[in-house]
Design goal:
- This protein is α/β, with parallel strands linked by helices.
- Helices cover 20% and strands 34% of the residues.
- The protein contains eleven helices and 37 strands.
- An eight-stranded mixed beta sheet has the order 16-15-17-18-24-23-22-20. It has a five-stranded parallel beta sheet with strand order 4-3-5-6-33, sandwiched between helices. The chain has a five-stranded mixed beta sheet with strand order 8-14-13-10-11, with no helix packed on it.
- The chain is elongated and about 155 Å long.
C-alpha cells in the first residue's frame, strides 16, 4: 500500500494563478490600509485557493513485477565452427540457470539463426524484435552468447539496460581465407582479364614460410596447382576459353588446425562474349537481295564486314579499262589464304565459279570449316548450274547436293518437325502470317538437320557440323522478300541472327545443350535436344555425393527440372554426352569472411550503457546488481539493473478539503476578520 497527495485543479491552472494573484493583491491592500483582519482574510483566501487546486489523499494497492533478462543465443553458421556450438550451448544453459535462480527475475531466451539469403548474423534485428514484445521498464539486462561477428551492428536499437557479450571461440584460433577482389561479370573471349586474389591468415596463424598452394579449375576440369604468397594481392590474368558461362574455381587445401575450409574456395562465374563478329560476304552476280545482306550486316555495330563482290565478270567485254573499275586491287590472296582464320563467318551469296577465286582458295575455305570456321551459302540459280561452287573443293563440306533443278513457283517456307526443336527455328515470330518466296533450288541427299522446308517438303534450310566447324545451306535467294514485306514479310532478321549465332557456337543456340541457372540455393536445369526424350540428369554435389533428377518436357526439344542444393559450392551436371557445372550460393558467404571471434563490431553497442565482454573459455562471469548509469561490468563480473517495476491493482482518492469544510473554514475566517476589525473601529 502506497499513499501520496495528488492535486486535481477544479479550474485551469492559468485561471487559478490569476485568482491567487488577485487574493495576494487584496491582502497587500489590506495591510497598506492598516486593517487588523488582513491575516484572517488572507487565510480565508488561501483556503479557497487550496480548495480550487483539488488536493486529494491517494492510496495505491501495488504488486511488484519481475525483472526481465534477455538471453540472445547466436546459432549462425560461424557458431558451428570448431567447438563453438557446444561452448555456446553449455554457457547459455549455465547462465539461464543462474538467472532463473535469482529472485524476482524472468528469463527470455532468443535464438538468432542465419539471416535470409546471405544476410549473415542478424543479432541486433532479433534483439529489436524481442524488445518490441516486452515492456522496456522491466528489462534489467541483455546477454549475448556469440562470437561477436554480427552483420547488422549499424541497426539503431535503443537499449533499455546494459548489454554484455559472452564471447565464444578461443584466443589460439586461426584461419586461412581466400578472397577475390574483382571479378567482372563479362569478359571478351580470347582476351585476358585480370582477377585480383588474396590469401590471408587470420588469428594466431602458425609460421609456414608465407606460401600456400592455390588450385585453379575451369568448368570442373582437373585443377592446376601453384605456390603463391600469403598476405599479398595476386594479379591473375585469365582468358575465357568459350562463350557463355565460364565457371572458374579457386581453392586452397585445408591447412592443419585452421577453423574451417569453407572460405578456402571462391567460385567466379563470368560470361564470355565476342568483341566483334568478323564476317566476309562474298557476292556473286548482283541481285536485289545483295543489298539486303549488306544492310543487315552493317546495321549491327558489333559486326566488322568485308564485302567481296563481283561487279564485272571476266566474260563481260564492254571496253572499260580494268584499272578504272576500282581504286585499289582487291586483296583476294590475303583474304582467302593468309587471313582467312581471322573471320568468324564467311557468306557466299549467289556465288559461282568464274575463275576469279582459284580452286586453291576454295579448298582453303573448306579446310577453314574443318578447323572450326563457319560458312553460310545463300544459293541462287547459280547453285544448280555447272559452275556451282558445289562442284569445287568447297562442295566436300556442303550439306546437300543440287539436282540442277530450279523451282520457279511461289511457296511458303515451313519449319520442319525437327526445326520445331532446333533453337535456330523454334518459335520464330509471326508464324502463320509469313509471306511466300518465289524461287527454290532443289537439293537432295541432305546431311545434317533440315530445319525448314519449301515446295513439296523439299529441304530449304540445312544445317550441319563438319569436324570442328559448321555449315548452313539456304536453298533460295529470295529471303530478302521477307525484309521487303512481300505478302506480309517474315522474320528474316531474327532467322539470320539466330543462324549466325548458331554458326558462331553461341551457347544459347546449341541444339544439344545442358545449362543451369541458380536463384539462391535453387537450381533450374534446362536440357535442349533434338531427340524425343532425355535420360535423368546426374548431379554431383560439392561433397562428391550424386543424385539423379528426371526432367520433364516444357517445350518441343526442351526439358527442365528444379533442384534444391543442400549446400553452397560447385555442382557438376551430366546428361548423356552433355556436361556443365554451376556454383550455388555467394562466392564469399558473410559468415565465413571473418571467422575469428572478436568484440570489435559490438564494442560501440556495449559501450552505450557501459556493458562488458567476457570470454567463455575464461569461465562464466559472476552476476551483480548495479544502478543504471554506473559501470555494468568488471573483472570477472557483469551487472544487471533492478528496475523495481510494479503493477497498480487499486487506487483510492479521498478529498482533503471537502466542500463543507471549505465553506466552514472560509466563513469562520471571514467572520473573525470582520469582528476583529469591527472592535478596532
Amino acid at each position: 500500500m502506497t499513499s501520496t497527495i495528488v492535486f486535481d485543479p477544479l479550474i485551469p491552472l492559468v485561471l487559478l494563478a490569476v485568482v491567487a494573484l488577485v487574493a495576494l493583491a487584496a491582502v497587500v491592500l489590506a495591510v497598506i490600509r492598516g486593517l487588523q483582519g488582513w491575516a484572517l482574510r488572507g487565510l480565508a483566501m488561501l483556503v479557497v485557493i487550496a480548495a480550487l487546486s483539488g488536493p486529494s489523499f491517494q492510496q495505491e494497492d501495488r504488486a511488484p513485477l519481475t525483472d526481465i533478462v534477455i538471453l540472445l543465443e547466436d546459432a549462425s553458421a560461424s557458431q558451428k565452427l570448431a567447438d563453438r556450438a557446444t561452448q555456446s550451448s553449455e554457457a547459455a544453459d549455465a547462465l539461464a540457470a543462474r538467472i532463473e535462480a535469482r529472485a524476482n527475475t524472468e528469463l527470455r531466451r532468443v535464438t538468432v539463426p542465419d539471416g535470409v539469403g546471405d544476410a549473415g548474423t542478424q543479432l541486433m534485428t532479433a534483439l529489436g524484435d524481442a524488445l518490441a514484445e516486452e515492456p522496456r521498464a522491466r528489462i534489467a539486462g541483455i546477454l549475448a552468447v556469440s562470437d561477436g561477428r554480427i552483420h547488422d551492428a549499424d541497426l539503431p536499437v535503443d537499449l533499455p539496460a546494459p548489454m554484455h557479450l559472452l564471447m565464444t571461440g578461443k584466443e589460439t584460433d586461426w584461419d586461412r581465407r581466400l578472397s577475390v577482389r574483382n571479378a567482372p561479370a563479362f569478359a571478351i573471349i580470347g582476351e585476358p582479364v585480370t582477377l585480383t586474389l588474396r590469401i590471408d591468415d587470420l588469428g594466431t596463424a602458425p609460421a609456414d614460410g608465407g606460401l600456400a598452394q592455390l588450385d585453379i579449375s575451369v568448368d570442373g576440369e582437373e585443377p592446376q596447382s601453384f605456390r603463391v604468397p600469403v598476405g599479398q594481392d595476386l594479379d591473375l590474368p585469365v582468358t575465357l576459353p568459350h562463350g557463355g558461362r565460364n565457371v572458374i574455381r579457386f581453392s586452397l587445401p585445408e591447412a592443419p588446425g585452421e577453423l574451417t575450409d569453407r572460405n578456402n574456395a571462391a567460385l567466379i562465374q563470368m560470361n564470355g562474349v565476342r568483341d566483334r563478329l568478323r564476317v566476309l560476304l562474298v557476292s556473286g552476280e548482283p541481285h536485289q537481295g545483295g543489298r539486303t545482306w549488306r544492310n543487315l550486316l552493317k546495321s549491327d555495330s558489333s559486326v566488322d564486314l568485308v564485302h567481296f563482290t563481283i561487279l564485272r565478270p571476266p566474260e563481260k567485254q564492254d571496253g572499260v579499262p580494268v584499272d578504272e573499275l576500282s581504286l585499289i586491287a582487291f586483296p583476294t590472296r590475303e583474304l582467302f589464304m593468309e587471313k582467312i582464320d581471322d573471320f568468324d563467318l564467311i557468306i557466299f551469296d549467289r556465288y559461282k565459279r568464274r575463275g576469279i577465286l582459284p580452286s586453291l582458295y576454295l579448298e582453303n575455305v573448306a579446310n577453314y570449316v574443318r578447323q572450326g570456321g563457319a560458312v553460310l551459302v545463300a544459293a541462287g540459280a547459280d547453285f544448280a548450274s555447272a559452275d556451282s561452287i558445289f562442284r569445287s573443293p568447297l562442295g566436300a563440306v556442303l550439306p546437300a547436293t543440287p539436282s540442277a533443278r530450279v523451282i520457279e513457283e511461289p511457296f511458303l517456307p515451313v519449319v520442319s518437325d525437327l526445326g520445331q526443336r532446333h533453337p535456330v527455328t523454334t518459335d520464330l515470330p509471326g508464324r502463320g502470317d509469313w509471306g511466300r518466296w518465289l524461287r527454290q533450288i532443289d537439293v537432295t541427299d541432305p546431311i545434317g538437320n533440315v530445319v525448314m522446308t519449301g515446295q513439296d517438303d523439299r529441304p530449304l534450310l540445312v544445317l550441319n557440323r563438319v569436324d570442328e566447324g559448321r555449315v548452313a545451306l539456304l536453298a533460295s535467294d529470295h529471303a530478302w522478300l521477307w525484309n521487303r514485306g512481300y505478302e506480309g514479310g517474315g522474320p528474316q532478321l531474327e532467322l539470320l541472327r539466330r543462324l549466325a549465332h548458331w554458326m558462331m557456337k553461341e551457347p544459347e543456340l546449341e541444339e544439344e545443350d545442358l545449362t543451369a541457372t541458380a536463384e539462391g540455393q535453387t537450381m533450374r536445369i534446362i536440357r535442349r535436344t533434338l531427340g524425343d526424350d532425355v535420360p535423368p540428369v546426374t548431379i554431383t554435389g560439392p561433397d562428391g555425393s550424386t543424385v539423379t533428377l528426371p526432367l520433364t518436357q516444357s517445350a518441343p526439344g526442351v526439358f527442365e527440372g528444379l533442384y534444391e542444393g543442400p549446400e553452397i559450392g560447385l555442382y557438376r551436371l551430366e546428361n548423356g554426352d552433355e556436361v556443365t557445372v554451376i556454383g550455388l550460393g555467394p562466392a564469399a558467404p558473410k559468415e565465413f569472411v571473418e571467422t575469428i571471434a572478436s568484440d570489435v563490431t559490438m564494442a560501440p553497442i556495449l559501450a552505450a550503457l557501459r556493458g562488458g565482454v567476457a570470454r567463455i573459455e575464461d569461465g562464466l562471469p559472476r552476476i551483480r546488481e548495479v544502478r543504471l548509469g554506473r559501470p555494468a561490468a568488471g573483472r570477472g563480473w557483469i551487472g544487471l539493473t533492478p528496475r523495481n517495476a510494479y503493477e497498480t491493482r487499486d487506487v483510492r482518492q479521498t478529498p482533503i478539503l471537502p466542500g463543507w469544510l471549505v465553506l466552514l473554514l472560509s466563513a469562520a475566517l471571514i467572520v473573525a476578520a470582520w469582528l476583529r476589525e469591527g472592535r478596532r473601529s
